[in-house]
Structures are given as C-alpha cells and as structure tokens.
Automatic annotation (TrEMBL):
Name under which the protein is recorded: DNA topoisomerase 1
GN (gene name): topA
EC id: 5.6.2.1
Subunit structure of this chain's protein: Monomer.
Family: Belongs to the type IA topoisomerase family.
PROSITE patterns: TOPO_IA_2 (PS52039), TOPRIM (PS50880)
Active site per the UniProt annotation: Y291
Organism annotation: Persephonella marina (strain DSM 14350 / EX-H1)
Role this protein plays: Releases the supercoiling and torsional tension of DNA, which is introduced during the DNA replication and transcription, by transiently cleaving and rejoining one strand of the DNA duplex. Introduces a single-strand break via transesterification at a target site in duplex DNA. The scissile phosphodiester is attacked by the catalytic tyrosine of the enzyme, resulting in the formation of a DNA-(5'-phosphotyrosyl)-enzyme intermediate and the expulsion of a 3'-OH DNA strand. The free DNA strand then undergoes passage around the unbroken strand, thus removing DNA supercoils.
Region (Interaction with DNA): 169-174
Pfam families in the cross-refs: Topoisom_bac, Toprim
Class of enzymatic activity (EC top level): isomerase
Coiled coil (UniProt feature): none
Amino acid sequence: MGDKKTKKIVIVESPKKAREIQKFLGKEYSVKATIGHFKDLPEKEMGVDLKTFKPKFVIKSKNHRKMLSEVKKLAENAEVYIATDPDREGYAIGYFMYEELKKKAKDIKRAEFHEITEKHVKDIIKKAPKFEQTNFGLFDAFLGRRVGDRIVGYTLSPIASKEIGGRFSVGRVQSPAVRLIVEREREIQQFKPTPYYVLTAILKKDDTQFVSYYEKQRLEDKELAKKIYEGIKTVRQAVVKDIKKKEVKQSPKPPFTTSSLQQTANSQLRFAPEKTMMLAQDLFENGLITYHRTDSVRISKEALTGIRKFIEKSFGKEYLPSKTRVYRSKNTQADAHEAIRITNFVDLDTQRKLVSEKGLTEDHFKLLKLIYQRTIASQMKDAVYDRTTALFDIGGYVFKTTGSVLKFDGYKKVYNIEDKEETQRLPDLKKGETVEKVDQKLEEKWTKPPGRYTEGSLVRKLEELGIGRPSTYATIIKTIKDRGYVVKEGGSLRPTEAAYHLIDYLNGKYNWVIDYDFTRRMEEFLDAVEEKKKDWKEFVEELYRKSVEGAKNVISKKMKDYALDLAKKHGKDISDIIDDPEKLKEFIDQHKETKPSEKQIAYARSLSEKTGLELPEDVLQDKEKIKRWINKAKKEAMKSYKLSEKQKAVLIKNGKEDLIDKPEKALKWLEMYFRKRRKK
C-alpha cells in the first residue's frame, strides 16, 4: 500500500469473523483477529497487588504474542477500528488492544457489530466514534469482576481445601449455583409424599364424550371423596347448571434473550447452555443471527419492517397485527442491544440453504430454526380460542368441564412449542338440558417432590436471583460440571458428595460467598461501575476484606485430626480449644510424639545399608532428625538408581524419554502418572 492512502485496520476476536468482515470491506481494509482474550491474569499466581489491587495482566500464549507484534506493525500510522464484541468482555479485549496501539496508530475508533451483515458492518464503520469517547466504565466493570473473582478464588480455595480435606474451589458466582442444586436435592430428600384424590365423571351428548371434574379438583379427604363417588355411582344423568362461552387470546412470547434461548434450547433440543452458546457464536459470526449475548427483547425498526414484510408475503395479511408489537426489557441498560433474532428474513428452506453454504451442521440449523420461529412469531397476531366452561349437577354435586377450540392459529402457525391450551371438544350445550353420564372414576394420586434443576431451569433461576449475566450463565454451569460439583443425570443436575461438603463448609464459615442476595448486589454494583456511578476498587476491596477476615484462623483438617488423635492417646478433652489455632498448636507441640515410628527406623536402616551412609544413634531417637536423614539418604540412593525396563517403557510411550537419565524426576513423574490411572 502506498503511503498516500492511510491503512485501515479492523480488529475482531475470531478468525472466522475476520474472514466474513474482510469479504464485506474489501482490499482497502485489513481485518485481524485477537484470537479471544490475548491478555489475562497469570495462571500460576494471584497476579494482583493486594495493597493497591493493581492487576498484572500478561500475554496468554506464544501465538498471542506473535499476533500482537503483527498487529502493532500494521497499525503504524494506520486508522484502527477496534470491533471486538459489544459486551464487557469484548470491550476489555478492545481496551487492551487500544492500550497497545494508541502510541502507534494515527487514529483508533470503536466499532460495535450487532450482526455480521454487509450493510450493518459498513454502516457501523462509517459512524464509528473515537475509542477515547467510548464508555471506559465497561473496562472498569470487567476489572472489578476479574480481579474480585481472582481474589476470592485464590484466597478461599486453598483454605477450603485445607479445612475440608481434598481439592475444593470456591467461586464468587459458581458457589451460589452449587448451593441452589444442593438445596434442591435436600428438599427432594426431605419431601414426604401425601395422597390426594381426583374424581371425574365421563359425560356424553349425541356422539361426543367428554370429561368433567368434581369442582374441587384435589380432595385431601379420602372419606369425603369416597362418599361423593358412591353418591354419583348410580346417577345416570347430569344437568347443565351453567354455561359460559368466551373468546380467549394468547399472545406470542417476546424474541429471545441469551437466557430464554438457553432455556428453550435446553428443554426443546436438549442442548446444554455451553453448546447453545457455541452454536450461536457460529451463527452470529456467519451473519445468520444478531449478537447472542444480550438481555434485551428489543428489535430494531429496520428489522421490524423486514419481519412484517416477510409475514405478509409468507402467511398473508390476516396474520399481521395492524401495529408492530413492542417488547420492553426488564432493565433499561439492556436496550443498547437488540434481542437475538434472524438477520435474513427468508423462509426455513432458504435458512437451511444458508446454513449448509456456510459449512455449518444440522445442530446449527436446529438452533437457527428455533430463533427463526421465535423472531417471526413475536410479530404475528394472537392465537384465538373459543373457551367454554360448563357446570353440571350430578346427584346434587357440582362437576365442571372446560373445552377450547382453536378459532384462529395466529402466531402458533410458526411457533407452537411451549404453550398448550386444553383442547377438549365439547358438544353444543344449553343451560338446563340433561346429558348422559357414562362412567365415573376415583383416583388416588400422590404429591410429588420438586424436580431437580435442568440446565435450562438453572439458568432461569440464576437470572431470577440476579446472579451472573448473559455472558456468564453458560460458563457458570460448565464450571460446576467440570469441577465435579454437579453431574448430569438424564436431563437434570444432581450434586456430588463434594458439593455437599463445600456448601456445608461455606455455610458455616463464609456464608457471604453463597448468599444469593449478596451475590446479586455485587452484580448490581458492577452494573453501576459500568455506568461510572461506582468505583471498581471498592468492589474488590469488599471481597478482599471478607475473604481475608476468615482466613486468619485457618486450622487444616489434618491438624485437627492429629490433635484429636493425640488428645485420645493422652486422655485429654480439647473441645474448648479445637477452633483456636494458637492454643491448638501449643497443645500439639506439648504432646506430639518425638520418637520415630518402627517403620521409619526400619526404612532408615535399609537406606543406610544400600548407600553406606552412617546412621548416628541420636538420629534414631528423634522424629525430625530421622526425616531429614532419610531425605538426604534418598538423594544419595537416587544417584545410583536404575530404572526398570517397564518404567522406561512407560516413559517412552508417553514421550518422556528425556527423563530416563534423571531417575529422581522420572520417579516423581511415574508416581503421578500411576496415581491418575488409579483414579480413573
């Protein structure tokens, strides 16, 4: 490129998105991908200065480092458009990029693509504001979340692991989610089913049979139920006491948000939330749907026009309401975004073609079909039913029946998945007339415990409690499955043993971590940070204070068990000091065994023979000394240690042949390898 023309660089997260956008923008632009988050807190350490809360962000990998130096070269004197995703995480990636390039580039702008379509991309590039004029509050909210979560996890996970015994991880948002599942399981375990009775009479007029229920549909009293049953047994007729007919309308649901999409895809398609998000990411990057992380139900004016034209053309005028339907989002902030909707207003066959042209799968099409149905239905007319309710007198008892007839299908022509209207056809009935009673039934039923959460209903619950945000629901659920707190059984989630241990422990010691209300307030605090009304450091400070307060008096399970053993041995009662670390340590120091065990002595003697090292008498009398001597002797023994052929074979098979000349390292690795095998 000549110097006369300023270079134009567009930066997005994913290579696939980069390719799509490159097609739209042509040669004049160079579109580059950051490959997700290219900077993050270090993996092996806290990475946060606990006095100032200043985080230390590092470049995540060699690949990211290579990408960054390429982009920096390209950006020299260029016009840069940072077009990472339009949410907090996307903005943070963009902000890191802005920091890296602001001294090099001629100009940096912020472009937010809500859909990857040619017209939209070109419009947004034209109107892109300078990066300096965007809301840095988004980055501060990201900082608060990332640093706060890191402090909680890094401070409390080791403590929990030590005190419970085992490997446990504590998370600001994952732990409340585990608590929900544990509490539901306990409700189910404690549930006592009670019986109730349902009484029905089968009635008939002309050739139509229909069911009617005793006016109280659930009877708790068995004797009363039997009495009524006997009372109507011999009656052959029912008299119409009252009849009401009315027209009932059913409105379509609003278009999808992240949460409602995850719930519906889970119940209808059995997709886990993280699968739904992966498929949606692909559909978004290929320009088939709008951005998939949103809690808005708004649809843009242009899109509404497109949807309405499509409805009129495909289904006819009678399916189109005279005015567009307007849906309001629960929180006002959400409305900067749109709902999740299709971007091409074409029929399903054409949508299927688009999916296969882009090289996507059947599952992608299933999800797109759901989004297509919900988008179109949300702008169609109500479904209309004629509902009839009739009351009958049967032997002096009142029975009731309802029936509905679908008069106009409306939006259900496209989206008839979730709501079912009872559709029992009733004959034409008039007040005062008599119909035949054919049969009656008395059934004993039992109350059922609440159901376990599915991934979909857990998302709904998290949203209801204000825990997590659209971009995090799927990650929360994936994390608690990966960490082994929850397993999927059938379609539902069951807590593991570890989940009970964790929740009981946190409940006793760090209740705030799993307090739903506190977690919700923290999310609201971050929203306020995003709106520049609060300072992110305040958020982190509170989490740090709460985490550290409890960390002062940590007594590990090992220490407790050891002290209790000693107390038993010496016939002492230590219940009053068991939670006092200072006193407990004193007690252990006074009563601990200083003599080595028989096993230790025998082991030391055999090492002495093997290595020819002298084993002095005072070492055999002192537990600490013998430990140190054994470690020294083991190192000595290692120098002449020969690995067996079998051990060498395992190393070679696993690509670890470089350890064959380092017996000490080799044995460590082998021990770990076999431990993992045993676990499996």
